[in-house]
Amino acid sequence: MNFKTFLTYSFLFAATSFLFAQSTPNIAEQLKTALDEAAQNGWSGSVIVTQNGKMLVENGYGLADRESKKPQTAQTVFSIGSITKQFTAAAILKLECMGKLSTDDILSKYFPDAPAEQANIRLHQLLTHTAGFPGAIGDDYENVDAAAFAKLAFESPLGNPPGKVYEYSNVGFSLLGIIVEQVSGVGYEQFLRENLWLPAGMNSTGYLLPKFPKENLAVGYRNDKRWGTAMDRPWMSDGPSWHLRANGGVLSTVGDMHRWYLSLKNNTVLPKTATDKLFTPYVAEGPEGHSHYGYGWVVQDLDGEKLIWHNGGNGVYNANMTFIPAQDICIVASSNSNSRSSDNIAMRMMGILLGKDFGGQEGEEMDYMDNPVTNAIYNEMMEKGATNFRENSLAILKNAGFDNEDDMLLLGVGERLLDEEKWQEGLALYEVYTRLFPKIIVSWTHLGRCRKELGDVKGAKAAWETSVSLRPKNNPAVSWLKAME
Question: 162, 229, 286, 444 — which has fewest CB within 10 A?
Fold first, then answer.
């Protein structure tokens, strides 16, 4: 999950008249007051804010474990989600600096059996989300090793010709992680730990190698229900499934992430030639061209200043890392609940530093299941029913501010309906979802579930058969269909 669309446009709202405010003695107090208010309104997480080498905030807020009343601290370990991607990009560039690969290499060099359609994809295209691979091909906690994942990836048809269209893809970054292992001869996490994290002074970053005490991890909450920690999920013996590895799921602290910022700023781990490649705005993320993707980082221009950031989350944890190199501003924020977004916290902090109001006060809810767009769609359905949604879906979606390219918003509504066992409404939602996004596997899987719960066995079978046709392996619909025989 990511929150890119909202954060992009929120930061750009005031860009044309941007005036950078100078730090004043009370800036730190303003930051802390805003964070205290956010915590009082239900947000919990950790934050670090620095400017011009000065530590303004380094603290935790709220509870890391609600049941045991354990407070969140600056040392609490959290999942950084898709911010992991820039570590994978840095690992690729480290190997390039070592003369072991090139970002111009093609996939067939590392995967000789890659189909012709994918064989000539360049590493550069994987790094910039322009390779054409789908966003995901399996669940984060469906354990798949590197060989099985690569086979599954190459069996998946490309959504677009390589190099033509920006389409955010976790799959591409996991393939990069596999290449890191092939080229280095060691595990993905081991290579990053030895060549990036430890040289940057980051002792509390990784999957398993830091040997995190479980009590140091923030407990995640989804819709105010205890989800647990990453250590409660079914990982393999050497880390998470390749559905997650190298594209997300790295655990860290705000202090370690700030140490990483310093290493990038001072070129202590990567030379300037490599960090320049990380932060080059290669491809526009949308037709308006408001933001561009580098190598694992989003790059924006704000009135002549370069803003660099990324966020990430898994529907439970969410995190944001943002910095402005010219102002030496760095903000890292985390949250251990999907009902409060760290993006808003980061925007609020940036607004105080720069004397602008970017919103984000009081830890407003902005996750993919609970935001103004999904709430508007959900409320319309609850007020006027499933039939009205079917008949007027396009108008309802338009009035709600739905982004026709962001299926995650529909997934957010759908998962909320399924969590509440509102099968009729879920059926209507997924009928529209599959029509608008016919290649999204999870939409067909959930459509089948709604039909089965409502007694339409034949319809459920048809939906699951479509799901399996899109992804014949590592798909729960396969076993569901067998159970129906």
Answer: 286
Report the distance separating Cα 113 and Cα 76, nearest Å.
43
CATH (one of 1.10.3720.10, 2.40.50.140, 3.40.710.10, 3.90.550.10) for 4-85+187-363: 3.40.710.10
Q: Show the tokens assigned to 149.
A: 């994942």
CA triplet 73, 365, 24: central angle to 5 degrees?
60
Residue 136's Cβ-side half-sphere holds a number of Cα atoms within 13 Å equal to 24
**∠ Cα 86 87 91 (to 5°):** 115
Average pLDDT over residues 368-393: 85
Domain definitions of the chain by residue range: 4-85+187-363, 372-484
Q: Which two tokens stand for residue 201?
A: 């002074």
The CATH code belonging to domain 372-484 is 1.25.40.10
Residue 428 confidence class, pLDDT cut points 50, 70, 90:
very high
More confident residue, 48 or 302: 48
Q: What is the pTM of this model?
A: 0.76
The predicted-structure confidence for 183-205, as pLDDT tens digits, reads as follows 999 999 999 999 999 999 999 99
